[in-house]
């Protein structure tokens, strides 16, 4: 009985020819999908960080403006410039500015929304684009002159 088990075990061990090729055939698509998923997550995280930074810069730029119209224009220009310098290409960029009257002691809130294209990662079945938004509030100097 023990001899039969030993003989059967040796035959199983010997018949492993070609198993490395089969394992590689199964593993390769999984590895490629995992790599694309890591790239997808990295691109989304980087886009979110850059949009958050653009909202921060835009709110700061708007908070030092003297008029609500100038604050809105400065926020839009600053957000677009910050994203362009960071290498983010937005299919649709929206900058919403709430100036609360732009008076000393108030705050300016800027929301930046950017639609980021992901169509080049289509093998994963992810949507063609994703909208990333960030909001930042910057206080207006209490002691500034009007």
Describe this structure in words.
- Residues 18-60 form the TadE-like domain.
- InterPro entries: TadE-like_dom.
- This is Flp pilus assembly protein TadG.
- The chain has 146 residues and is an alpha+beta fold.
- The protein has a single domain, classed as Pantoate--beta-alanine Ligase, Chain: A,domain 2 (2-Layer Sandwich), CATH 3.30.1300.
- Helix content is 52%, strand content 21%.
- It contains three helices and three strands.
- The chain has helices at 2-14, 19-63, 68-85; strands at residues 90-98, 107-117, 129-139.
- Strands 1-2-3 form a three-stranded antiparallel beta sheet, covered by helices on one side.
- Strand 1 (90-98) and strand 2 (107-117) form a beta hairpin.
- Helix 2 (19-63) packs antiparallel against helix 3.
- The longest helix is centred in the first third of the chain and has 45 residues, at 19-63.
- The protein is rod-shaped, with a radius of gyration of 28 Å.
- The termini are far apart.
- 24% of the residues are buried.
- The mean pLDDT is 86.
Percent helix among the residues?
40-55%
Order of helical and strand elements: HHHEEE
Under CATH at level 1, the class stands as Alpha Beta
User: Mind summarizing the main beta sheet?
Assistant: 3 strands, antiparallel
Instruction: Enter the CATH topology name.
Output: Pantoate--beta-alanine Ligase, Chain: A,domain 2
Helix/strand/pairing category = alpha+beta
Number of helices: 3
Strand runs, count: 3
For the termini, the CA-CA separation is: 99 Å
């Amino acid at each position: 009985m023990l001899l039969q088990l030993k003989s059967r075990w040796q035959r199983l061990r010997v018949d492993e020819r070609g198993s490395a090729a089969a394992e590689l055939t199964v593993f390769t698509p999984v590895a490629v999908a995992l790599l694309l998923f890591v790239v997808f997550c990295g691109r989304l995280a980087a886009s979110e960080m850059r949009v958050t930074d653009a909202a921060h810069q835009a709110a700061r730029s708007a908070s030092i403006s003297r008029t609500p119209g100038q604050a809105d224009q400065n926020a839009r220009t600053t957000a677009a410039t910050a994203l362009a310098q960071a290498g983010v290409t937005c299919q649709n960029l929206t900058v919403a500015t709430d100036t609360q009257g732009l008076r000393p002691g108030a705050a300016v809130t800027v929301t930046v929304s950017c639609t980021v294209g992901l169509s080049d990662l289509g093998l994963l079945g992810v949507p063609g684009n994703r909208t990333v938004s960030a909001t930042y509030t910057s206080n207006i100097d209490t002691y500034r002159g009007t």
